[in-house]
């Protein structure tokens, strides 16, 4: 049911604010940065294709599918360069495998995460924003980190993951549950972490070129290269995309029509430079890194089902930079990182606010020191580490719906301690964070977690392990600049959200080796179960009609279960795989400051109680075949559960073939999305496309 237009939560307002309050313009903007983006997205792919191979290289593109079959990896710590990654014992981290990154590389992260993780991706339809919802949390309670730096829009407090291209990132992982002590006060439900590999400085160069296309006028081009010497590493990734998105859908009158005003043009460039400052090349004990990321999306916004038409257009452009210095000594590791990010949004309606624009600027810096309390010699029973760091975040929002330039300054001081056994059988850590927001001290944010592999037995051809984990964190989120100062509708009297998050779980793994080769798994079975509980007071929620205003809900209680199961079986040269993930989430309003609002005991809007996916397929002779099926349950669209959207199922088929030679690798991929041609809406009145096809061809050169 999607009858009358309901009152909606924060994310609906965010979408509306992007279409009304946030800047965008369809015609070529006059600002120099927009002209530069237009030039780069038009000509950079051709220039790179002609010139890169002589001077650039990229990652290793000829990875074996047999070695990268694991679709996700659940571990207590992601293997990343961020020093904080070693202090997450007891937390669930899910890493997307390289084979799925390859399959989805020309798509946005919204498509990848909605089909390969239990996180609910709230998509507002074609060419509109898509946001994350971890375990019933709102979009503003979900962090997005690029190389450890938050890249949420500082005014909206959310990240539009439909603007994040999968092919730009070397590693994509998700951290479930709060880690506010480590990653900042806005990390309530979880975090999406986007990172790049640390170069090995092995002399060489390579180039990867990908062309693709598909239904509804879809065209894709990606180029990536990297050049390495003994001390230098230079990398470049660029993408270009266009689509008409003119699919057929059923309108409110039950008639089939073609979606109008839905064209898309997008492009971007991500450049990285690393320099090894070590005394001896290759030691990587002292490293200097720089990243520059520039992209632009020009989107036509199609009409919702309750609109007779649309001429809306939006331009999203962003410039992001990242610089880091690291130095490792015998027992100490020092690092300094800084990031300057600027986002430009222009919106053109033709009827309401015909040319509206907003600019957001964010500066981030972090100084850190990690120290090992154990000496290099000896055989200690436990290893002890201490990490102390001081992040600072400064944000500025300027726009036509904010009366003046509003700022937010957030310095912090964090200390965390880790203890573990040398074989990682037992790991535990504790953290404490103190933040100040515009000079006022926020509540202390403590956190503690532990993981214990309490059972482990290995025989000649088999092994069994069983691990327990638990985590407790205090959470806190200060209102965003739009929530406080947006005009009309901002509420300067909002209280910050705060509460506690607890989660626990276990992982069971069974491995059976082959009789001929004990190093290869003939059978691998893993089962992971997680339970979580979160109580948040003063939850911020947007209500209204013509004018939307944020209010505090007295308390929201979220709890539920998540499970991840995998089976892999090797039959000769063929590897079969099956994976099943599911999430059961209850997120209800327990009390309200608003009289007679009807929300008490009811599910928070747009939080499905049931959500799940499974993958089934095989790898054989360089061919990877996978069928993915997703299920999304009922989503209430009003706070009193009076209106809802029906559950939906979608099927997706992926095929990829890899042909490898010494000097090059060729990959051909094809996908059928929404195989069963399901008519569905993720968000009310925003139709999604039916069955469509995607094709890509990739050539990787090494020298």
Automatic annotation (TrEMBL):
Subcellular localization(s) per the UniProt record: Cell outer membrane
TonB-dependent receptor plug domain sequence ranges: 90-191
PROSITE patterns: TONB_DEPENDENT_REC_3
Example of a GO cellular component annotation carried by this entry: cell outer membrane
Membrane topology of this protein: Multi-pass membrane protein
Domain TonB-dependent receptor-like beta-barrel: 193-675
GO molecular function terms attached to this record: siderophore uptake transmembrane transporter activity
Keywords linked to the UniProt accession: Cell outer membrane, Membrane, Receptor, Signal, TonB box, Transmembrane, Transmembrane beta strand, Transport
Alphabetized InterPro entries for the sequence: Beta-barrel_TonB (IPR000531), Beta-barrel_TonB_sf (IPR036942), Plug_dom (IPR012910), Plug_dom_sf (IPR037066), TonB-dep_rcpt-like (IPR039426)
Annotated transmembrane regions: none
Taxonomy, superkingdom: Bacteria
GO biological process: siderophore transmembrane transport
SUPFAM superfamilies per record: Porins (SSF56935)
Keyword flag Transmembrane: yes
Main location: membrane
Family: Belongs to the TonB-dependent receptor family.
Protein name: Outer membrane cobalamin receptor
